[in-house]
Amino acid sequence: MKEKGFFAEFRKFISRGNVFDMAVGIAVGAAFTAIINSFVNDIINPIIGVLVGGVDFSELQIVLRHATETSPEVAIRYGAFINSIISFIIIAFALFIMIKAFNKLAETAKKKVETEKAKAAAAAPPADIQLLTEIRDLLKKN
Questions:
Q1: How many CA atoms does the CB half-sphere of 51 hold within 13 Å?
Q2: What is the pTM of this model?
Q3: 6-141 maps to which CATH number?
């Protein structure tokens, strides 16, 4: 029985190589995010904390309800949000640099190909010129 519709399309999509490349990209991205989070939490935030008077961003919060014996504390943890913003900016900057480098490499490769094509076009005259040159040479011989 041949599958039709959504599931057949999904099977075709998942069996392509691009899906595996995407999965590897996601795994590398997750590892990169963990590294950036550690960089922000363990290096950047302590430096900023020292500069602004010893504040630990991860501990900044507004307590809405204190913890009791039966319920946990309810708080708005805006320090964690600040950490996330710093992480986002660093990740976005790193991606910007990587994409910029990739685009520059692609542009350099494109220019190289165009230069080689221009050299090849300049080296070999057009077909009509070649034909006229051959005719000229034949007339000279006769």
A1: 7
A2: 0.57
A3: 1.10.1200.120
